[in-house]
């Protein structure tokens, strides 16, 4: 499995491209900007983008979505937030977008696939009500639920601090300590490190 990270301004969002070398299927986790490097990586690998997996609906995680053959995937509880994206994009100098249609609504415990590899959906409300993490092998893509030694902000619409703490304790900290966490912003971490060092836990 090839993993490439693309960090996009102006809010330094992490977007993750995974390519299954055997099946030539690929997924993009969050899509903050139109990035030719992603297209180049797909072309170089001879891969086809199967899914755009959204961790949640905030504008900075969806601003790069354009018409595509890939299926766009998100939790239904974030549709309202997604539909508000153009209220915020101009504030950051980002052009307004055509709000994408969601092809697949997911819920806790759902499984998708990239090649023969499972993508497990873990619903982790707290940053938003539709926030999810994606567990793929030993990698957890956490969006804005948990960061290295921090958590996602909870003062925006749909946020709830007690809920995000509960999500992390019951959904993330129950995973093995060696699971790598790839957050929506900032550097990667592990479940074990966060159990010991996350100041909000």
Which terms would index this structure?
201 residues, six-stranded mixed β-sheet, 5 helices, Metallo-beta-lactamase, Chain A, 14 strands, alpha/beta
Can you describe this structure in just a few lines?
The protein is α/β, with parallel strands linked by helices and 201 residues long. It contains five helices and 14 strands.
Would you give an account of this structure?
With 201 residues, the chain is an alpha/beta fold. The chain has a single domain, classed as Ribonuclease Z/Hydroxyacylglutathione hydrolase-like (Metallo-beta-lactamase, Chain A), CATH 3.60.15. The chain has a 6-stranded mixed β-sheet, covered by helices on one side. β1 and β2 form a beta hairpin.
Mean pLDDT: 96
Oligomer: single chain
State the total count of DSSP E strands. Answer: 14
Q: What's the CATH class label? A: Alpha Beta
How would the blueprint of this fold be written?
Elements: E1 2-8, E2 13-19, E3 25-29, H1 36-45, E4 48-53, E5 71-75, H2 79-83, H3 85-88, E6 104-106, E7 111-114, E8 117-123, E9 132-136, E10 139-143, E11 146-147, E12 150-151, H4 161-172, E13 180-183, E14 189-190, H5 191-197
Parallel strand pairs: 3-4, 4-5, 5-6, 10-13
Antiparallel strand pairs: 1-2, 2-3, 7-8, 8-9, 9-10, 11-12, 13-14
């Amino acid at each position: 499995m090839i993993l490439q990270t693309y960090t996009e301004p102006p809010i330094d969002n992490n977007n993750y491209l995974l390519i299954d070398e055997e099946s030539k299927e690929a997924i993009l986790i969050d899509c903050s900007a139109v990035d030719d490097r992603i297209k180049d990586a797909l072309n170089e690998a001879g891969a086809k983008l199967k899914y755009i997996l959204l961790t949640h609906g905030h504008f900075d995680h969806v601003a790069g979505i354009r018409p595509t053959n890939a299926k766009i995937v998100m939790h239904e509880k974030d549709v309202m937030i997604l539909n508000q994206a153009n209220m915020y994009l101009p504030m950051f100098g980002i052009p307004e977008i055509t709000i994408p249609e969601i092809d697949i609504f997911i819920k806790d415990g759902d499984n998708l696939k990239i090649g023969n590899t499972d993508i497990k959906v873990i619903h982790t409300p707290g940053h938003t009500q539709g926030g999810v993490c994606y567990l793929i092998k030993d990698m957890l893509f956490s969006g804005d639920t948990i960061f290295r030694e921090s958590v996602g902000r909870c003062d925006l619409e749909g946020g709830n601090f007690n809920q995000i703490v509960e999500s992390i304790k019951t959904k993330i900290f129950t995973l093995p300590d060696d699971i790598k966490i790839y957050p929506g912003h900032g550097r990667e971490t592990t479940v074990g490190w966060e159990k010991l060092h996350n100041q909000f836990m």
